[in-house]
Amino acid sequence: MLDWTDRHCRYFHRLISNQVMLYTEMVTAPAILRGDRDKYIGFSPEENPVAIQLGGSDVKDLATCARIAEDYGYAEVNLNVGCPSDRVQKGRFGACLMKEPELVAACYDAMAGAVNIPVTIKSRIGVDEQEGYDQFNHFIQTVKTAGCETFVVHARKALLKGLSPKQNRHVPPLKYDYAYRLKAENPELNVVVNGGINTVEDAIEHWQHNDGIMVGRAFWNAPWLIRDMHEAAGLTAMKSSRDDVLQAYKAYCAEQIDKGLSLHWLIRPILGLYHGQMGNKKYKSYLVTEAPRRKNDVAVLDEARAFVIDSEKREFEDVS
Ligand SMILES: Cc1cc2nc3c(=O)[nH]c(=O)nc-3n(C[C@H](O)[C@H](O)[C@H](O)COP(=O)(O)O)c2cc1C
User: Fold this and answer.
1) Residue spans in the chain of domains classed CATH 1.20.120
2) What CATH number does domain 242-319 carry, 1.20.120, 1.10.357, 1.10.3470, 1.10.287?
3) pLDDT at 316 over 90
4) Is 83 a catalytic residue?
5) For 293-303, how does the pLDDT look when each residue is reduced to its tens digit (9 = 90+)?
6) Res. 95: pLDDT tops 60
7) Angle (CA) 171 107 82, round 5°
8) pTM value?
9) Which of 1, 153, 194 is the best mutation target for the ligand 1 pocket, counting ligand atoms within 8 Å of the beta carbon and taking the most?
10) Shortest-distance atom of ligand 1 to CA 26
11) List 83, 96, 148, 253, catalytic entry
12) What is the mean pLDDT of the chain?
């Protein structure tokens, strides 16, 4: 998620689960080819497995970027066919590509031919006047013919005019049945469903119908949900607690500060770590006020943590 799941956020999420697949923010092909490459796509090997998400529609450029991403050590290349912003539309990529399945197929073909890692597509279920399942299915079948086996489906359509990107993430209704039907009719495909998955119960429901789920905003707001879903999925148990994760991230912050980063930026992904715990609000507001003032001082993390009341301690206090 643009401006959210940067490398620091992903490092932090990886501390919470050693097995979920993590995705970069969308990075455009021109940014990789002509920008400060390390700034845009540099990442720590500890974050892996990470999929890089590319934005673009120039077949040659995408193939070159896929190769560069593979050389950087990414585990997967994902093409964005879901972003509805004006800027992205002007560049002829993102969600508007739902109207150009043949071009997406050509992009897929070129990227897959350039690398040995999996290439996947993240799409909507339609844009603008595209309504029914048949149009969505036409898009998928066209790209599938080029060899694509994995589709991440944000299960709502996007309106390219009249709705902001933010509105396009909640106004058009979610139609999970499109993703379910896609899987039922194409059992050989990997279908990953995305959009509005906010609880472990939601996740369990979707796992009955699809191969996987992708979670965006809920993991940002309440990152420990990653662990809850990790456990619900029966993945290898992890022993660390929220506090262990905070300590490990504190060590990472110290390293990043030595490289010139500010604590102010680094605390963003951890604001929701104690979501749902007593004292969480004070923890967050302490981080938000202190980190910009003490840009190099990782002790701010422990001081903020001190506001959170352990549930065990709370029970003891309740009884006494
Ligand atoms: C701030 C923000 C930035 C986003 N940036 C991207 C992006 O770069 N690439 C992408 O595929 N989706 C992006 N999305 C959309 C999410 O990946 C996801 O499809 C959408 O939020 C629905 O899932 P959710 O309900 O689990 O959040 C972004 C969402 C938000 C809130």
Assistant:
1) 242-319
2) 1.20.120
3) no
4) yes
5) 999 999 999 99
6) yes
7) 10
8) 0.95
9) 1
10) 8
11) 83
12) 95
